[in-house]
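#struct-help
A.M.: can someone run this one for me? Single chain, 206 residues.
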Amino acid sequence: MNSDVGFFSLSIYIYSRSTLKFTTKAPFLNFIKTLLKENNMASLATAEVCDVNAGHLSNGDLRVLPPIFKIYGQSRAFSGPITTLKVFEDNVLVRELLETRGEGRVLVIDGGGSMRCALVGGNLGQLAQNMGWAGIVVNGCIRDVDEINGCDIGVRALASHPQKSNKKGHGEKHVPIYIGCMLIREGEWLYADSDGILVSKNELSV
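D.P.: on it. Structure tokens below:
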């Protein structure tokens, strides 16, 4: 009897650009998921999407968010359908949404651009990872940067700030929001990588 008995085994081939990778053990599932995610995003590089979708950029079906966000989290590239939230210096509703099953969604938070406190910290970053969110975009600040950088999600924010937010529960879920004069609606798709952030009216195909 070999040492693999009693453990789930998986054999999968992944082709990523010119490299063929092979693995056979269940402990590598997260590694495989990361490769698949990176390979998918590589085929949806934001720069290339802009190059081949000039018409959609012109009519507003595809928009580029202003280059005001810093990159945090382990996932430098991520995408998913958008869930919107409008708050100001209060993160109670942020936690409420992140406690729901993410199912690959991206939470986009209009925090009014406030630089006076953080709306997302390390605990919420870990919660988002555990609940299956693909990423979080914050028009405001985060904190616990080292912890968030250890989470397997993508995070974008204006800056970091050590002070926590209020806990009054004020805000609006699932409403149209504006970030840098750019309208973002619930259910649209967000694509982010090292070059920037795109918002698309519909899911993009490769």
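A.M.: thanks! The first strand starts at residue 9 and ends at 16.
D.P.: also worth noting: Helices lie at 29-42, 46-52, 54-59, 92-98, 122-130, 145-149.
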